[in-house]
Amino acid sequence: MKVFISGNIAPIALKQLEENNISITQWKEDRQITQEELIEACKNQAGLVSVGPNKIDSEFLNACKHLKVIALHSVGFDQVDVGEAKKLKIPIGNTPGVLSGATADTAFLLMLAVSRKAFYLHKKIIDGKWQNYEPTPELGIELNGKTLGVFGLGKIGLEMAKKCMAAYNMKVVYHNRSRNEEAEQEIQAEYVSFNELLAQSDVLTVHTALTSETTGKFSIDVFKKMKPASIFINTARGGIHNEQDLIRALEEKIIWGAGLDVTNPEPMKKNNPLLYMENVAVLPHIGSATEETRAAMAELIVENIVAGLKGEKIPYPVY
Ligand code: DGY
């Protein structure tokens, strides 16, 4: 059985696929594979491990109907036309659960970095602009006892909430499409309306999927309902905030700061004003990028591929 892997994945996955007598072809170039190249590469394959943002859309799925399984190297599956995959009966799997801790760590890192202007001040040293010790340089703000607002209290949001409670005794409010009663019991998070979430949050952290409902959700009108001293964190998908509106909200001091692990587009352009603002920290979509988490994701990918190739029900289906 042959499988195409469209990028770099943890070596453990390659080893395990080979142990299952699966023959691998891997995209090795230092750029994202194009859609046409991906279709071409999948022609004689039985399975695909999809690494990165390639669209598993109707065009791709219809051109690659022969695939017995597609294993995503992500928990998010906004790049997939699930309806079409269902229609064509192509099983698609993702990597749920195993990356919650690492992604929440990234959100926490960004929150702390923004609150103390860490990325900006680090760059100041590199640029030779740190002249002498000053008691009132660019001052940060503290997080202790503040209110964390979680937009999307699922597994990752819950991990982020727990870290903020343990580190800073933060109060947690959240907004979801439907209440997460289990999480409410576990951490005493309070369910609030979206407008209340905006009004109450000192730090607002986004952990929801990118859907038609959440695309562009954080627009200027929404930022205007947030506290002027608040911090906006997004480690979910760049499409959930409107980037021009976020820039305006920061420039006009409508909100205090922002931390982003996801941008729209990715990669972010070098001249993007967000990269040069004092109260902003940007990372290149590294939410789950730890040795441990990538190895754990690799195992789920292998399980999905092996089951799919055997014609069995895959263990981590997206539908
Ligand atoms: C995920 O798993 O969804 C990460 O954001 C990588 O895309």
UniProtKB/TrEMBL annotation:
Q: Which reaction does it catalyse?
A: glycolate + NADP(+) = glyoxylate + NADPH + H(+); (R)-glycerate + NADP(+) = 3-hydroxypyruvate + NADPH + H(+); (R)-glycerate + NAD(+) = 3-hydroxypyruvate + NADH + H(+)
Q: What's its EC?
A: 1.1.1.79, 1.1.1.81
Q: Which GO terms describe its molecular function?
A: glyoxylate reductase (NADPH) activity; hydroxypyruvate reductase [NAD(P)H] activity; NAD binding
Q: Give every D-isomer specific 2-hydroxyacid dehydrogenase catalytic domain span.
A: 3-318
Q: Which residues form the D-isomer specific 2-hydroxyacid dehydrogenase NAD-binding domain?
A: 109-287
Q: Name one Pfam family in it.
A: 2-Hacid_dh_C
| UniProt keyword annotation of NAD present | yes
Write out the coiled-coil annotation as residue ranges: none
**UniProt cross-references to Gene3D superfamilies, sorted A to Z:** NAD(P)-binding Rossmann-like Domain
Matching InterPro entries, A to Z?
Answer: D-isomer_2-hydroxyacid_DH (IPR050223), D-isomer_2_OHA_DH_cat_dom (IPR006139), D-isomer_DH_CS1 (IPR029752), D-isomer_DH_NAD-bd (IPR006140), NAD(P)-bd_dom_sf (IPR036291)
Q: Look up the signal peptide feature and give its range.
A: none
* Keyword Iron part of the UniProt annotation: no
- Annotated GO CC locations: cytosol
Q: According to the lineage, what is the superkingdom?
A: Bacteria
The family annotation for this protein states: Belongs to the D-isomer specific 2-hydroxyacid dehydrogenase family. GhrB subfamily.
In Swiss-Prot or TrEMBL terms, this protein is called Glyoxylate/hydroxypyruvate reductase B
